[in-house]
């Protein structure tokens, strides 16, 4: 009896798995990698749930016939599958939202970076124009602005000597 | 001196000390005319006469001629002799007036100078002995003048007008001076101070400390202001109080400020709180001026750079004081040394007021008087 039940369970689980996969595939064709990994996770949970339930049911109905047991499990399974699919849907929505936000952020970042880059380059270009001329101007300005202390202290005679 | 260099001639009473000190070091005679010639009380003052007597004591073979009215002075310097000397300074100026010149001359004596000076230790005009001890001595150490016998001690404190203070100064001799490269003043590390009071309530010093700290505490935590209350015979003849503050930087530069109370019977009474606050502000002003040498010691640093080995010395100074500017002119006429003067406007690197970078090559002055042992 136990072996038969186990075999049936395995079968059921397989069915559930395939169902879940199908559902997921139909729901999320776009994001393949993420969803497949998700689905694997979910199916494991699902398997656990179904096992627990089936065990409970078996413990409750140990003296009942196989067919009844099967029926029970069959009845239960769609429910659990539905629940699981519902969960999947929820998670699906969540992941979608997150990915959207991420995409937005990424886009924004990209945009900003591009902007900065362009600004920097333009600034650098401006800054690099006529460097030698600017240096010469700054030097002359400095020379004119600062008083010649040597001249002030030692007088004009020394200036002639220089 | 054996070489009979032609004498330099000046007119007027200004910068008498500079001229006499540089004359002594260079060996060139100096003639000064028209000393207060148009004054109601013409001629040399008591404190100047006292200074000339001091020069006579520490040199050997000086010839000093003063005319009847004291308006003309001829000074032919002898050799710097040194040794143990005592001198009663005039109470019209503080001991700092005499000590500033002694600091210039002491490293070039034949025998190490050990001198006891009596008079006024702190007044409102000249740098006090406290400030000179805190700023000029570390500066001399930069030039290689150092040793156990290098000390400046206040034995008794005397305030104007009575005086009655006593100071002991001893300085080792050196054959040559090290060139210096002081171009980075660093950042302020700590502030030390000395609040002194003589013949007044000892509480005065505490009140000065509190008010000075009220300003300085905002800027740096490492502040310690000592209180010095001398009693009995050590307190001189006149009451008074004052404060001297010294800021030390990370690179060993000392910047100072000081204030003293009005002498007894002159001017209005000064509150110790006001004195403390004003002195703290003066210190902040001095820090703003900045540089690697305190503004009171600018000329001392420049002189020792001039007299150093034949090597390049550099020093970054704050704005030059009028006294220093005149000193530079005198250095040119006595030693034919002209400094390279570069202005350094304040920027990212240099904070505060505009700085001046002074560069010169020493004349290779060696202490001829010093006996070789």
From TrEMBL, chain B:
CDD domains: RNA_Cyclase_Class_I (cd00875). SUPFAM superfamilies: EPT/RTPC-like. Pfam families: RTC, RTC_insert. Residues 10-341 form the RNA 3'-terminal phosphate cyclase domain. Residues 183-287 form the RNA 3'-terminal phosphate cyclase insert domain. PROSITE patterns: RTC (PS01287). It comes from the Eukaryota. InterPro entries: RNA3'-term_phos_cycl_insert (IPR013791), RNA3'_phos_cyclase_dom (IPR023797), RNA3'_phos_cyclase_dom_sf (IPR037136), RNA3'_term_phos_cyc (IPR000228), RNA3'_term_phos_cyc_type_2 (IPR016443), RNA3'_term_phos_cycl-like_CS (IPR020719), RNA3'P_cycl/enolpyr_Trfase_a/b (IPR013792), RPTC_insert (IPR036553). Its main location: nucleus. It is found in: Nucleus, Nucleolus. Keywords: Nucleus, Ribosome biogenesis. Belongs to the RNA 3'-terminal cyclase family. Type 2 subfamily. NCBIfam families: 18S_RNA_Rcl1p. This is RNA 3'-terminal phosphate cyclase-like protein isoform X1. It comes from Ceratotherium simum simum (Southern white rhinoceros). The gene is LOC101398565.
